Amino acid sequence: GFALPGIKNFILGQAQIIAQHDFGLYSTAFMRLANVTPWNRKRYLKAKKRAEERGAIGTVRREFGGGETMQWVQEGVYRFNWMNATEAFNRVVAIEVGRMQYMDVMSRILDPSTTKKQRKMGEEFLRRMGQFTDKDILEIKSGKILEATAEGREKFDTLLRKFESYVHKATQGGTGVLDVPAWMAGKHKHWFLFQRIATSVTTHIVKGVVKPAITFKNFSPLLKYAGASLSGGALYQMFKEWMFDEVSPVESENLLDEALFYLWRAEFLGMFGGISEAIPGLNINPYKDVPSTPDIMREFTPVVARNLYNLFDTAVNRGKFSH
Helix 193-205 to helix 150-172 angle, to the nearest 10 degrees? Predict the structure, then answer.
């Protein structure tokens, strides 16, 4: 079971990419990157190098403070449990799919036959996934970035690099000041590394999956996210049963309950699913043996923070803080 964290990280990361991108483009990019033939291997290495240049690979390595001890954890544990490998692959896929969809959205915005609603959805996509400003959108609308001039090529490359630098954060999580609440990005930010990643992902679920359904009546991202999470949760449960002889807490005859369990297993609600477990006494988890808090937070939260929580919890239970 050493590889389970990496397997789950891969499954959940791919579900996020599927939800917020065109499935046809995702399929094309994924198959190209997953193909191990020599030619495609070169393509993957080129894509990985591009991801490294955009700061997409090695997020945990850069952000996880703690000196030599944490460096050992990073180089040892995360490599051993496939977390490093799956994080890198997920972010490479996210950037490559994003590049393809960026080109598609840009062409739609410039196409005179595009409807007002479609154009607005395209602009919203660029703002959400690439942190594009109104100025950036105007640059695209002007058409100058497609001109065969030095200035046009420079503007095109600049906007593309910007999009590549942010698009992977929208599905795999970011840790910068634009990605998480200010209190998580302060001087104690290393204590909240995985919470920052989970919070960033959950924020983008709301913006990229829930909001389109409400604002544009576009339920496609929500349906894709549900479908990918359902499949991912079922696959992960299969691994758990295969490796640990774990018994599912739901009856297979009840298809609805089983589907809901798979969604829970895939952390469909993101950070919202863990709120009940974080509030003492609430505990509304319908599957008592399957915590909803993201695995990456439970397993790698700094020991000091966990001990402080346990100390406080013990004190409360013993009545030391009661009146």
Answer: 110
**Residue 133, SS3?**
coil
- Give the model confidence (pLDDT) of 208-235 as tens digits: 999 999 988 999 999 999 998 889 888 8
Write the pLDDT tens digit of every residue in 180-190.
Answer: 777 676 666 66
Question: Residue 282 gets which letter from DSSP?
Answer: T
Tokens at 261, concatenated: 């369990």
Q: 124: which DSSP letter?
A: H
Write down how long the chain is: 323
Q: In the structure encoding, which two tokens stand for residue 238, read together?
A: 């299969």
List the structure tokens of 58.
């090695």
Checking 154-157 for CB contacts under 8 A at 24+ apart, the result is none
- The per-residue DSSP string of 157-220 comes to HHHHHHHHHHHHHHHH---STTTS-GGGSSTTGGGGHHHHHHHHHHHHHIIIIIHHHHHS---H
Residue 278 to residue 217: CA distance in whole angstroms: 33
Q: Mean pLDDT, consecutive 10-residue segments, the chain of 323 residues?
A: 77 92 95 82 92 85 58 60 85 97 96 94 95 95 91 95 95 79 68 75 88 91 91 85 75 76 78 59 58 47 44 52 40
Tokens matching residue 71: 């460096």
Are 91 and 57 within 8 A, CB to CB? yes
| Cα distance between residue 318 and residue 323, in whole Å | 12
Q: What are phi and psi of 20, to 5 degrees?
A: -105, 10
Q: Say which residues have a Cβ less than 8 Å from residue 220's Cβ, sequence separation at least 6.
A: 212
Q: List pLDDT tens digits, range 57-104.
A: 876 666 655 555 555 655 565 666 678 889 899 999 999 999 999 999
